[in-house]
Write a structure and sequence with these properties.
The structure is a single chain. The protein is α/β, with parallel strands linked by helices. It is about 35% helix and about 15% strand. It has 15 helices and 17 strands. The strands form 5 sheets. It has a 5-stranded parallel sheet, covered by helices on one side. A 4-stranded antiparallel sheet has the order 11-14-13-12, covered by helices on one side. A 3-stranded antiparallel sheet has the order 6-7-8. Helix 2 runs antiparallel to helix 15 and helix 5 crosses helix 14.
Length: about 550
Amino acid sequence: MTPAPAASPHAVIVGSGIAGLLTALHAVEHGCRVTLVTKDVLDHANTRFAQGGIAGVMFADDRTDDHVRDTLVAGAGLSDAAAVQVLVDEGPARIRELVALGVAFDRDGEGAFVKGLEAAHSYPRILHAGGDATGTAIEKALVARLRASDVAVIEHAFLVGLVVAQQRLRGVDLLVGETADTVGTRRVVEADAVVLATGGAGELYAHSTNPVVATGDGIAAAIGAGAAVADLEFFQFHPTVLAAGESFLVSEAVRGEGATLLDEQGRRFALDAHPDGELAPRDVVARAIARRMEAQDGRPVFLDATSLGATDAAARAAFLARRFPTIDRAVRERGLDWAREPIPVTPAAHYLMGGVVTDLVGRTTLPGLYAVGEVARTGVHGANRLASNSLLEGAVFGARAGDAIAGDAASGAWPSLSPAPVHLPSMYDRAPVSRTSTAGEPAGGEEFSRRALQELMWEHAGLVRDERGLGHAASVIAGWRAQSRAVHSERDFEDENLLLVAEHLVAAALARRESVGAHFRSDAGQAEPAAARQEALAC
């Protein structure tokens, strides 16, 4: 006979983006005691940096079937059809919930939502807030609601690892309160359920759109605890990041408004790669840019927005400032006038499609452990994420996980995902490597540094990959992993997490010999994008 669970199960949620915040709000609404743990301050998460918007079937002349189709096509036939259906079916309700929670999406003079078009969407179904500040608007509204709730918050708390006993999750091991001047303290927080909402791992690469806190902590913790991960080879590179000053993402929505990509000779080249040109799937556009940059000895290409809004330069400047206020400010801070001249751009690491394997309510293969948002591999994105589906995924599956936790606690059994719904290569099943082993030296003798890892990953496991480069990266990373390093500070732990995730990503990229979606191998056969995406239409 299964013993009755204790009243008010305690859920610890690690991460404070849209997925973590909605999980917390739904779980507390169902009577759970909730503690939200965040690596920085509460409102500093990847969500805050989302410019483009959130996709959803919110207009009478749009169709659910079309959003499903667009998502499957972008995913190159590798998306999980059931997960995509859940995303699209429940998306509108989650968007309406965000409105009710205080998110002010942009509206026209008659009060209707303003439509936005982004790459690979067949309909302009993207909603924005503040022009290009959608993520900030969502984060502010959800943080305000969370602060007014009964959710306890622990800020400046780094996830060192997961506490597992008798093959079930029991809590989290944290490093709390570390600053540049203060040594953090270790603290274990016991929990009935833990939800990973830690975001991605953009810090793996030399060029990234992610904040510096995106160091793969949740994925590394899951691997260390024995939970399954998958699809780590699918890392999306955003095509357009400013190539002047500090990296800054120029939203897909700018190309959706009609901006074009030009090479040094002023030639529009994106149509050479795909009939949709600048609005082709991101992997196609990013590689087209990379090829042109290679032909230009590495110099950036240009994004031309000088035809948007108006023919008069002053009116055009006013339009760009109104439609894209965040981007406009960043461009002008760099001394560029994009109303009058094209601006230099380059691809950068943006979003990890793979992660901790989950079912449709966030359960992982470890009882009591859930994952939501970018850290999770829900199956929605397949080999390549459709633009503006990431915020939607965080909202839909965050709410589902929050709703499921109380029910799972009431069952007394804490069900897990079993069996795993995807094939997991043997590398995912092996025991975690000790962080303090002493054997081995890195290939080439180079000592480990985060910058060295980022350059290695950018060159050999980035936009274009091959057997030789991936093999070299695997050898170097194995050597670095085998070195003995003191692990005391938060940055030390971050570096170890990045190495662990890099090891698994490179191994997955070596194992997947064909090119598909965001994983492009120059030495392998490639399923024709049109054919792979046509196959997805039959799903």
